[in-house]
């Protein structure tokens, strides 16, 4: 699950393990697509984090501000 805080002057992103989306567990149970694993089973996941620098970072910051409805 990814969550963001776009509070004034602050930007935080969180990544947390979850077995449903922002719609919640009940939504996925109803649709029949809730991801589960059996007790003691293992699951491997891969997370890739990219660090942006220079012009690429500036472009991304401008895009984020536009999405948040902010202009500097």
What do these coordinates show?
With 72 residues, the protein is an alpha+beta fold. The protein has one domain. 29% of the residues lie in helices and 11% in strands. The protein contains 2 helices and 2 strands. The chain has a two-stranded antiparallel ribbon.
Based on Cα principal axes, name the global outline: elongated
Q: How many E strands?
A: 2
- What string, H for helix and E for strand, traces the elements in order? EEHH
Give me the side-by-side strand order of the main sheet.
1-2
| Tally of individual helices | 2
Backbone structural class: alpha+beta
The overall pLDDT average reads: 82
Count of individual domains:
1
**Roughly what fraction of the amino acids lie in strands?**
5-15%
Question: Which terms would index this structure?
Answer:
single chain; 72 residues; alpha+beta; two-stranded antiparallel sheet; 2 strands
What secondary-structure arrangement, pairings included, does this model have?
Layout: E1 2-5, E2 12-15, H1 25-31, H2 54-67
Antiparallel strand pairs: 1-2
In summary, what is this structure?
The protein has helices at 25-31, 54-67; strands at 2-5, 12-15.
